[in-house]
Design the sequence.
């Protein structure tokens, strides 16, 4: 369970690094499904290994090697 809790800070860094490209995407309605999104694979080997990702350029959330991935959507406007 400790490993799952540490996924959040790594995902936050990834989301912030692509935040401007995702700004035009509307969040799903409550209870809806997230759109299929691609994120850049972290360049940091430790972060990449922690998430269980290969060295390709991008990844999708289901590719993360974790029992649970929590995605928090912030609406700033």
Sequence:
């Amino acid at each position: 369970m400790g490993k799952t809790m540490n996924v959040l800070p790594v995902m936050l860094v990834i989301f912030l690094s692509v935040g401007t490209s995702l700004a035009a995407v509307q969040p799903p309605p409550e209870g809806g499904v997230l759109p299929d999104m691609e994120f850049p694979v972290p360049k940091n080997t430790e972060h990449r290994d922690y998430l269980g990702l290969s060295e390709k350029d991008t990844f999708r959330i289901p590719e993360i090697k974790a029992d649970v991935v929590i995605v928090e959507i912030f609406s700033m406007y």
Remarks:
- Residues 1-18+37-77 form one domain.
- The helical segments are 2-17, 19-22, 45-51.
- The first helix runs from residue 2 to 17.
- The first strand starts at residue 39 and ends at 40.
